[in-house]
């Protein structure tokens, strides 16, 4: 009988996580209890929010010490006591970084219809929670109008690159803020941004100057993935009536000391702007409507996503840290089982 290898939270990270904060453990593959579904996890989505779940209890349940690392997975049903799900079906589930999970059907349990020529990983990179977050955050909260300027931070990443591509499609001038010259080039050449700004090594005044130069007509929508000094600089460039879409604050997730607030927050008043936070999961019931658009745009070649797929549960830590050291420029995921060769019993 195969073992179920999984990653556990060994201790709460202080600042940047270290390898010893996590442990790899093995257990017998669980039997699905009443109404539960046993799934083989294929791809685990690695996202910055998981860092928050390790030591900050706000919108999502804190991961208990010794507990598995929660994440969204693309999985295949192995055994089911729930009549609505059959072995062999593919699902998106709220699971964990482990080879097998038992899940009870809930609003997160969504069936995936595999399509010829569409790798299953696309259900995280192009049709998963991050793309839904980019879609609803930009369109519902940012409400971009043709001709406006949309500034996106974390713009080469999973959420940011899609927010930028959708904004461009809506007829906006699109400017991205990223770390490093290579990502700047990629934004313009691969993701069709009109301009890119490199925040690395720039202080607030320098970054403000760079953003103002890249956005000569000011910023109408700021899609914020990072918070910190980039948010402060963006505030200095906003137009009257601007919408600030607060999606993430990755610059603060590993802070071990109290964080200073943005010094330019006054601009929200001066420009009668709105600043609104949101969670992609608020729109869970409306995911099917976004899926229609995302699939159409992807089929037309109007949006695309990079993927970085690390392989093996044991490589969780090294892969996860890519989110925080600037090396990630893709939808990051961990492949814990190959999507092929799984037909029939997976046990
Ligand atoms: N509200 C929601 O429901 C929701 C859902 C999903 C994600 N999010 C948020 O969206 C943001 C992006 O998530 P993602 O999954 O798409 O990750 P990602 O952008 O693919 O990867 C993270 C990127 O953030 C940048 N970064 C890391 N540390 C930084 C720092 N100290 N200052 C500035 N930038 C830094 C890095 O790019 P550079 O090299 O360019 O710095 C890194 O590649 C995160 O803040 C996440 O929490 C929110």
Summary, kept brief:
By secondary structure, the chain is of the alpha/beta class. The chain is 25% helix and 27% strand.
Description:
- This protein is α/β, with parallel strands linked by helices and 347 residues long.
- Helix content is 25%, strand content 27%.
- The chain has helices at 49-55, 122-125, 129-142, 158-169, 181-189, 204-214, 228-235, 267-270, 287-299, 316-321; strands spanning 3-9, 22-28, 36-45, 70-80, 90-96, 100-104, 110-112, 149-153, 173-178, 195-198, 219-224, 238-246, 274-277, 307-311, 331-335.
- The strands form three sheets. Strands 3, 4, 5, 6, 7, 14 and 15 form a seven-stranded mixed sheet that branches. The protein has a six-stranded parallel sheet with strand order 10-9-8-11-12-13, with helices on both faces.
- α7 links the parallel β11 and β12.
- α3 packs across α4 and α3 crosses α9.
- The chain is globular and about 60 Å long.
- Bound molecules: NADP nicotinamide-adenine-dinucleotide phosphate.
- The site of NADP nicotinamide-adenine-dinucleotide phosphate has 29 residues, from α3 and α4.
């Amino acid at each position: 009988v195969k073992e179920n290898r999984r990653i556990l939270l060994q201790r709460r990270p202080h600042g940047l996580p270290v390898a010893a904060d996590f442990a790899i453990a093995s257990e017998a593959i669980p039997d699905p209890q009443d109404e539960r579904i046993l799934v083989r996890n294929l791809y685990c989505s690695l996202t910055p929010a998981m860092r928050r779940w390790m030591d900050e209890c706000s919108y999502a349940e804190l991961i208990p010490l010794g507990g598995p690392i929660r994440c969204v997975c693309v999985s295949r049903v192995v055994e089911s006591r729930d009549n609505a799900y059959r072995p062999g079906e593919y699902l998106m589930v709220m699971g964990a970084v482990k080879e097998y999970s038992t899940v009870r059907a809930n609003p997160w349990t969504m069936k995936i219809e595999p399509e010829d020529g569409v790798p299953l990983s696309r259900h995280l990179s192009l049709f998963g929670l991050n793309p839904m977050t980019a879609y609803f955050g930009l369109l519902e909260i940012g409400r971009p109008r043709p001709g406006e300027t949309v500034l996106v931070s974390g713009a080469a990443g999973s959420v940011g690159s899609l927010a930028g591509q959708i904004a461009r499609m809506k007829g906006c001038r699109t400017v991205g803020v990223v770390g490093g010259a290579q990502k700047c080039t990629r934004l313009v050449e691969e993701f069709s941004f009109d301009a890119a700004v490199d925040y690395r090594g720039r202080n607030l005044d320098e970054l403000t100057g760079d953003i103002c130069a890249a956005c000569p007509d000011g910023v109408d929508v700021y899609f914020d993935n990072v918070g910190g000094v980039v948010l402060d600089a963006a505030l200095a460039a906003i137009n009257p009536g601007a919408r600030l879409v607060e999606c993430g604050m990755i610059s603060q997730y590993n802070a071990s000391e109290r964080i200073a607030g943005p010094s330019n927050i006054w601009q929200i008043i001066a420009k009668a702007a709105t600043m609104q936070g949101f969670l992609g999961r608020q729109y869970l019931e409306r995911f099917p409507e976004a899926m229609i658009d995302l699939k159409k745009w992807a089929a037309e070649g109007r949006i695309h996503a990079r993927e970085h797929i690390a392989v093996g549960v044991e490589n969780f830590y090294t892969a996860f840290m890519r989110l925080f050291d600037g090396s990630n420029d893709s939808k990051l995921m961990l492949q814990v089982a190959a999507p092929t060769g799984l037909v029939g019993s997976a046990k």
